[in-house]
Amino acid sequence: MDNNEFEQLSSLWQSTDKKPMPKMDKVLKRHKRQDVILRLNLCIEMLALIAVSYLLITSALNGLEFIKLTWISFVTVWAVIIFILASRSRLDSLKQLKSQEISTSIEIHKKLIKNEIYRWNLNIKATWAFILIFIMFNITLIYQNGFELNNLLIEAVLIAGLLISIFFFVIKNKKAKEILHTLEQ
Amino acid sequence: MVSITKDTEKEALLAKFWPQISRAAAGYENRPALSDELAQEMALSVWRSLEGFNDQCSLNTYIYRVIHNTAIDHIRRHSKISEDELDEAMLCESPTPEKSALQAQRQKQLIVAVNQLPLSLRQVMLLKLEDLNNIEMSEVLGLSEANIGVRLHRAKEQLSKLLAGMN
């Protein structure tokens, strides 16, 4: 492609249809609304975490049987790990300066997406562990208290839900890998 | 030079750079709805970053950095799905009156071809199409001029092949 051809291409590019400029007050309002939703989500997640931790502490203080206490402890640790990792990634993303050189920011984005891949992998493994421990917990309960069809149905629905979430994590993980590939091009 | 804090100054600057913003959005995102969303995100980023401008580079470079950083952020958050189908849909849109129809078709082909370039080449190509010189491009991208030259050469080669393949 010689300079003349490129100049033609450049003027063709610059003559593309001009879209109307958005009303900035509306864009700023929408951004504020999204910011509020983000903060609200964070508060809900923190409240859920506090509730689970509170449940763990009161269960331990009330001398709940060992198997149930182990189960609640596992859920608490699982939730705390996922929350910390997700929050760290969110914070890293927010801290990033938009005015830095592109080559620098691409490296940061690669790091962020690698963190995300790590997080999805961790979610997949943690959910499998969750299912495994949940099944073991229920087998122990059946062994102790006998078999109940109603309970079994509820547990089956719960496990199906967890399997769907694993499927969702796998898809997100695959997409994150595709994005990493794009950034590495 | 002081930072740009007044809303009227920001509005005027945004209006000046809006054509570049919307074209860059099309160059990074060929799904129409997401392209509009990206253009708005870019405008918002420029608006919010202007207060942080303190002569560390030229205003032009600063704004292009913000625009392209927002695009990378967008890529990270919205992975592309079934791109081929979208490309085909975009190219098959039936154009209107003759001469402008041909021009519109060529523009669409150019946007699709630019979208198909690997990211590192797409960035230099988008800046070059906006008439930035190698020094300005190296300031925006943080690469040496020699590196820019190599990438630009490859980008032109690939773009030619892609456009030839469409005709």
UniProtKB/TrEMBL annotation, chain A:
Keywords: Membrane, Transmembrane, Transmembrane helix. It comes from the Bacteria. The lineage of its organism: Bacteria, Pseudomonadati, Pseudomonadota, Gammaproteobacteria, Alteromonadales. This is DUF3278 domain-containing protein. It comes from Pseudoalteromonas luteoviolacea H33. The keyword Transmembrane applies. The chain crosses the membrane at residues 36-57, 69-86, 126-146, 152-171.
From TrEMBL, chain B:
Residues 109-159 form the RNA polymerase sigma factor 70 region 4 type domain. GO terms for molecular function: DNA binding; sigma factor activity. Residues 19-80 form the RNA polymerase sigma-70 region domain. Pfam families: Sigma70_r2, Sigma70_r4_2. Keywords: Sigma factor, Transcription, Transcription regulation. SUPFAM superfamilies: Sigma2 domain of RNA polymerase sigma factors, Sigma3 and sigma4 domains of RNA polymerase sigma factors. GO terms for biological process: DNA-templated transcription initiation. InterPro entries: RNA_pol_sigma-70-like, RNA_pol_sigma-70_dom, RNA_pol_sigma70_r2, RNA_pol_sigma70_r4_t2, RNA_pol_sigma_r2, RNA_pol_sigma_r3/r4-like, WH-like_DNA-bd_sf. Belongs to the sigma-70 factor family. ECF subfamily. This is RNA polymerase sigma 70. It comes from Pseudoalteromonas luteoviolacea H33.
